[in-house]
Amino acid sequence: MNEMDGAAREKRGRIILHMDMNAFYCSVHAAEQPELYRGKPTAVAGSVELRKGIVVTSSYEARARGVKTGMTVRQAERLCPELILISPDFDLYRHYSRGFRRIAGAYTPQIESVSIDECFLDITGSSQFGTAIEIAEAIRRRVKEELGLPCSIGIGPNKLLAKMGSDMRKPDAVTVVRRRDVPKLLWDKPCQTLYGIGGKTADKLLRMNIRTIGELAAADEKLLKDKFGVYGAWMKRAAHGLDDSPVEPVREAAKSVGHTTTLPADLTKREEFRRVLLNLADQTARRLRREGMMCRAVQITIRDPDMKTITRSHTVDVPTESAEDVYKVACKLMDANWREGQPVRLLGITLQSLSPKTETPVQLDLFEYEEAPRKAQLVTVLDRLRDKFGESAVLTAGMLTDDPSALIRNKKIRGTSLQTDFLREREDGE
Length: 430
Description:
- The chain is an alpha+beta fold.
- It is 42% helix and 20% strand.
- The protein has 17 helices and 16 strands.
- Strands 9, 10, 11, 12, 13 and 16 form a six-stranded antiparallel sheet that branches.
- A hairpin with a 2-residue loop joins β5 and β6.
- It is globular and about 60 Å long.
- The protein starts with a helix and ends with a strand.
């Protein structure tokens, strides 16, 4: 197939956009309070008060000074003394995330959310709104004018090239990548710049003398398959700009639901861990109910200050969506795998072996049978309160006591923040 035939095929084929919100968290704060943050070096991090924790993201002004995601706040401040630190506000980020998806939805219903700050759009059937470039520019302009946020948009014949396009020019730009452009634009770049190839895979390719995307495109497919299996065949196709994966507006049912939090200070006391685990159990169970799912296994993640990480899981006897059940299992796993006084840097809870609630039979004993409807009604009310007034509308009193397990059963409510001073939420996959 010659280049003319390839161009004609692309013209008849799909048109995919990839929207990537630039420095999303920092941009949201700049849009909310421009007099404080716009045009200044900012970073969203853990405990701003204690000047500890990890940088979640930074503004482009801060990045120009060397501030990067993942470094400690102390490191960031040494590089950029005038850095402005901001506490995370996930309710606010979700509000803006819904906003840019609403704008995108005016041009196509075919939207696949990848994370809180990026999505794919299939605009193959949206020619009534103009050309692909006109649609992308209209979306970019509206997001800037209506939300005050910059975004980069890539245009391509498939998801792979659309994603590569959005990465090429940041912030606030539209970039087109056609299949015929792949050799010129991509083949001289390191393998790790190809969407879908991580650092470990790039290192393995390097040991095979495959340094660039062009060398990957020319590599023997059998050699790649012998080393990487079907992933090797996919990498070779991707290096040629080929990708058949569709934009999927309805995501597949989640295989797991998880929350992790990097603690701004190393915790060593059992009651401190329990408050963190209670909050994590509450958040994961709420997300589980929002998905209409139940879990059969609970996993915890523990990381120490030396970055050593362990995960431990337990299968429950009865499928559950209850924060109380999740919390009890998490505490037992923590007690079994943590020594008194041993410092912990990160904690996480992941709910696994999920199944739709409507298809999951649950056998209860006599006492649970009588109590279950009242508990379910109370949980529904609490969820509706949070849906209407935000996550900070409800706090279980267990977060304020040394014995959370007793109080979570009573669901005593206070009109104060759900998050403790030392805990900041990060949602896996959102």
